[in-house]
């Protein structure tokens, strides 16, 4: 089986087992612009390709988590509601299916499933593998499905056929994400909006003073959730 056929087989398996989008990029391509310590080659020796799966967009619409104190005040547990847990398990299935095929052919396959460790940039990987383009709000938007919530990057030493980045303007005159941000995280520089990570309040954990429950706040991805593309 040549690399084209093998890539198509992986694509089919991923899409039939829960992934909504499948893209592949060359590991060398993303490593060219990645800082030291954040290259795919830091995670897997002899890495050739990165497979990107978008499989959890709906999870963003149902962030109904329950937060609990851990055994001491340095930890909190996030207890997912049963429905969210089920969605995550389904998403996980497609990652495991793709990894299983790669390994059955003697290739290495490792994954960092949520992008939360920040070891490699999932946004950059999803753009380079053609899953979507950067909108004004600096998140990746697929022209049909809307913002992509990437749940899987699989690194492998298999030679695969690479997708190419999309070239289109998904935003037009829309300014919804910029208007939605109340924390000044978007600044216009030379006619283009830049996202200032230090000002973003997306993942601050705060305790609700009334319910004494932990929650994401004060913002919960408002810019992403107002994006009209794909709705
Ligand atoms: S997540 Fe919230 S704080 Fe961060 S840029 Fe978007 S709207 Fe602003
Ligand atoms: S909300 Fe509007 S401007 Fe922002 S990324 Fe989506 S389409 Fe583009």
Topology readout:
Elements: H1 3-16, E1 21-26, H2 27-33, H3 40-43, E2 49-54, E3 65-69, E4 76-80, H4 82-104, E5 109-111, H5 122-128, E6 133-134, E7 140-142, E8 146-147, E9 150-156, H6 176-180, E10 186-189, E11 192-195, E12 205-207, E13 214-216, H7 222-225
Antiparallel strand pairs: 1-2, 2-9, 3-4, 5-9, 6-7, 7-8, 10-11, 12-13
The structure holds iron/sulfur cluster (2 copies).
Descriptive overview:
It contains seven helices and 13 strands. It has 231 residues and is of the alpha+beta class. The chain folds into two domains: 3-170, 3-Layer(aba) Sandwich (NADH Oxidase), CATH 3.40.109; 175-226, no CATH class. Strands 1-2-9-5 form a four-stranded antiparallel beta sheet, with helices on both faces. A three-stranded antiparallel beta sheet has the order 6-7-8, with helices on one face. Helix 1 (3-16) packs antiparallel against helix 4 (82-104). The model has no long low-confidence stretch (mean pLDDT 84). Bound molecules: iron/sulfur cluster (2 copies). The site of one iron/sulfur cluster (SF4) has 13 residues, from helix 6.
């Amino acid at each position: 089986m040549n690399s084209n056929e093998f890539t198509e087989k992986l694509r089919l398996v991923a899409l039939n087992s829960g992934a909504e989008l499948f893209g592949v990029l060359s590991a060398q391509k993303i490593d060219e612009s990645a800082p030291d310590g954040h290259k795919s080659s830091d995670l897997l020796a002899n890495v050739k390709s990165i497979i990107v799966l978008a499989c959890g967009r709906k999870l963003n619409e149902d962030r109904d988590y329950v937060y609990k104190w851990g055994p001491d005040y340095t930890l909190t547990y996030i207890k997912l509601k049963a429905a969210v847990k089920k969605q995550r398990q389904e998403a996980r299935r497609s990652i495991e299916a793709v990894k299983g095929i790669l390994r059955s052919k003697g290739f290495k396959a490792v994954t960092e499933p949520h992008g939360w460790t920040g070891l490699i940039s999932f946004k950059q990987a999803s753009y380079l593998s053609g899953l979507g383009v950067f909108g004004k709000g600096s998140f990746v938007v697929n022209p049909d499905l809307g913002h992509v919530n990437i749940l899987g990057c699989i690194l492998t030493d298999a030679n695969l056929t690479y997708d190419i980045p999309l070239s289109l303007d998904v935003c037009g005159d829309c300014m919804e994400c910029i208007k939605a941000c109340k924390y000044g995280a978007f600044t216009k520089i030379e006619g283009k909006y830049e996202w200032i990570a230090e000002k973003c309040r997306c993942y601050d954990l705060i305790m609700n003073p009334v319910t004494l429950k932990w929650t994401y706040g004060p913002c919960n991805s408002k810019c992403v959730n107002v994006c009209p593309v794909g709705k």
